[in-house]
Amino acid sequence: MPTAAQMSLNTATVKEQCNLQQAIEGCARHGIGGISPWRDKLQECGADEASKMIKDHGLEVTGLCRGGWFTAEGSLTNAVLDDNKQAVDEAVTIGANCLVMVVGGVLDGTTDLQSSHQMVEEGLAKTLEYARQFNLPIAIEPLHPMYAADRACVNSMRHALDICDRLGDGIGVALDVYHVWWDVELEAQIKRAGKDRLLAFHVCDWHKNTNDLLLDRGMMGDGVINIPLIRSWVEREGYDGLTEVEIFSAEKWWKEDADLVMRTMVERGLSAT
Ligand code: ZN
Fold first, then answer.
1. 22 alpha carbon to ligand 1 midpoint, in Å?
2. pLDDT tens, 218-251?
3. φ, ψ of residue 267 in degrees (nearest 5)
């Protein structure tokens, strides 16, 4: 059960209530050990200023969300590749442990899943080449298969790790329990990943009767995911990083006071994570 100091706040969890500064100050108030900003929050104040604020409060940066979206323009355009390079630069500036990749869905107007996979892998390879210069790890986040069409066509730990095997050093996975809890291979694939490729651990919960496939994530303990079990598998491989809380919740947690959200997150860290 992670203590507050062993947890990290993904800024998406309080995205409606807090700008980056408010999220950072909230973490400090609640003794939360780390933060994982989204790029839109970073760009509000700029990466340099963000870096300074984060350092001033002694927070670890468990990741930067996100790079990827390689299939967005139908080919690997300079705009797509440059945006990923910029994401690498930002991640380096704020001292992030990794750059989280949401890789992009099926190419617009096509049924060509295979070419989409290929483009994603090429985009990852090119971004990795750039990130290696700064020793910044790239973390593929496999998304639940329901997002294969529109957000990410890498949908299992197996697929993500196959890509890692082909691309070599400097790339691993961000394991988000929301996306992979259902997978019968999860334990085996965590073992396969090992410490070196487990770059981030994201938690929230899956409501039994979820009413929105994007914006109805639950607080840990409010759903069907056995988070302590999955965490035990990750820790068995030697993962000793923070546990990052990432909750998209339009009707519940985004409407609550940010301090209540953070207080609840810390309590559920101890009781349900
Ligand atoms: Zn995540």
1. 21
2. 999 999 999 999 999 999 999 999 999 999 999 9
3. -60, -45
The alpha carbon of 188 and the centre of ligand 1 are apart by a number of angstroms equal to 20
**What is the signed CA dihedral for 54, 57, 61, 65, rounded to 10 degrees?**
-50
pLDDT at 74: 96
Domain ranges for the chain: 4-271
Residue in this structure with the two tokens 């301090």, named with its chain if needed: 259
Number of CB atoms found within 10 A of residue 2's CB: 20
- With beta carbons less than 8 A apart as the criterion, state whether 36 and 244 touch: yes
Strand order from edge to edge, sheet including 243-245? 60-61, 34-36, 7-10, 243-245, 198-203, 171-176, 138-140, 99-102, 64-68
Residue 129 Cα to ligand 1 midpoint, Å, equals 23
Q: Find the mean pLDDT for residues 136-146.
A: 98
Q: Is residue 85 classed as helix, strand or coil in its secondary structure?
A: helix
Q: How far apart are CA 213 and CA 144, in angstroms?
A: 10
Torsional sign, CA 76, 82, 85, 87: negative
Q: What is the CATH number of domain 4-271?
A: 3.20.20.150
pLDDT digits (tens, 9 = 90+) for 37-74: 999 999 999 999 999 999 999 999 999 999 999 999 99
User: Cα–Cα distance between 77 and 189 in angstroms, integer?
Assistant: 33
* Residues 204/178, Cβ–Cβ less than 8 Å: yes
pLDDT (0 to 100) of residue 31: 98
Ligand 1 centroid vs 181 CA: distance in angstroms? Answer: 12
User: How distant, in Å, are the alpha carbons of 62, 170, 212, 249 from that of 131?
Assistant: 16, 8, 35, 32
Question: Would you say 155 and 141 are in contact if contact means Cβ atoms under 8 Å apart?
Answer: no
